[in-house]
Amino acid sequence: MKTVLITGCSSGYGLATAQRFHAEGWNVIATMRTPRDAVLTPGERLTVLPLDVTDPASIAEAVSSSGPIDVLVNNAGIGAVGAFEATPMSLVRELFETNTFGVMAMTQAVIPQMRERRSGVVVNVTSSVTLAAMPLTAVYTASKMAVEGFTASLALELEFFGGRAKLVEPGYGPSTRFAANGSGRMDGLIPEPYEPFAEPVFAGYHSPGPVTTAEDVAEVVLRAAVDDSGRLRFPAGADAVALSA
After folding, report:
1. Which of the following is catalytic: 13, 140, 172, 194?
2. Within 13 Å of residue 125, how many CA atoms lie on the same side as its CB?
3. What is the per-residue burial (b if ≥16 Cβ within 10 Å, else e) of 176-194?
4. Which member of 36, 91, 128, 218 lies 3.0 to 4.6 Å from 20 by CB, making a disulfide possible if both were Cys?
5. Cα separation of 186 and 71, whole Å?
6. Which domain, by its residues, includes 239?
7. Burial (CB count within 10 angstroms: exposed 0-12, middle 13-18, buried 19+), residue 73
8. Phi and psi for 213 in degrees, rounded to 5?
């Protein structure tokens, strides 16, 4: 029985991904900053662990407690939308700490065991902002584009030892908690001069059209985890697939 460790499982893509792998018979290590039994109840083949991907001690404890990890899914992430001019550098660093450095730190923590076993897969969840330029997402895009470049290079290193690295690129999912989770960070990020520019942008986010569900992403993460074709990028959701065409 294979084991998958998934970060950011308290809601959205991470929660759906944990449920999808579990339904497929995997041993699932679902991690989140503050485990909540109401979200995922530990049981047969399902372990819930606390994990802060920005804390080295927390990472070490979670990896040590998980045993052999066949697949690492780096899903944990935070978002912010706003004008770059108005974005404090402290917020820039906060996004990179979780979205970029957290991915790198988790990956570095599991590579040794994968190298020794000469097998293992790292699946990094980015975003469709890496597929096409989108307004008011400069910092978020930068944090995800960094992961794209990191993963493409990492794939070549892991391949030498029999491992694999994959990218899953979800489209826009209005049903996830991305906006709610980032609302506090976005206060003041649309100053008055940018309001005429931002208004149609935000209206577009709520316009009819293809969107991505958490289940879409979970299905594609599973597909990427078992793929041995050498393919690197996996868009998830109808809108992401359209952008990647």
Report:
1. 140
2. 31
3. bbbeebbeebbeebbeeeb
4. 218
5. 33
6. 3-244
7. buried
8. -100, 160
Cβ contact 18:6 at 8 Å: yes
Q: In the 8-state DSSP scheme, what is residue 7?
A: S
Token couple for 27: 């041993």
pLDDT for res 39: 85
Whether 150 and 103 have beta carbons less than 8 Å apart is answered as yes
Cβ-contact 161, 115 below 8 angstroms: yes
Looking up residue 106, the CATH number of its domain turns out to be 3.40.50.720
Nearest-angstrom CA–CA distance, 105 and 94? 15
The total number of structural domains that make up the chain: 1
CB atoms within 10 A of CB 12: 23
| Helix, coil or strand: residue 195 | helix
pTM (2 decimals)?
A: 0.94
Mean per-residue pLDDT pooled into runs of 10, the chain (245 residues): 97 97 98 86 95 98 98 97 97 98 98 98 98 96 98 98 98 64 72 95 77 95 97 96 91
Q: Locate all alpha helices (DSSP H) within 161-213, ordered by sequence.
A: 178-182, 195-205
The pLDDT value recorded for residue 183 is: 53
In contact, 73 and 4? CB cutoff 8 Å:
yes
Q: Give the Cα separation of 183 and 177 in Å (integer).
A: 10
Unique residue bearing structure tokens 């909540």: 36
Distance, C-alpha 123 to centroid of its chain = 9
Distance CA 52, CA 55 (A): 5
Model pLDDT, residue 78:
96
- For tokens 């041993």, name the residue: 27
Q: Tell me the C-alpha distance between 84 and 13, whole Å.
A: 26
What is the amino acid identity at position 48? V
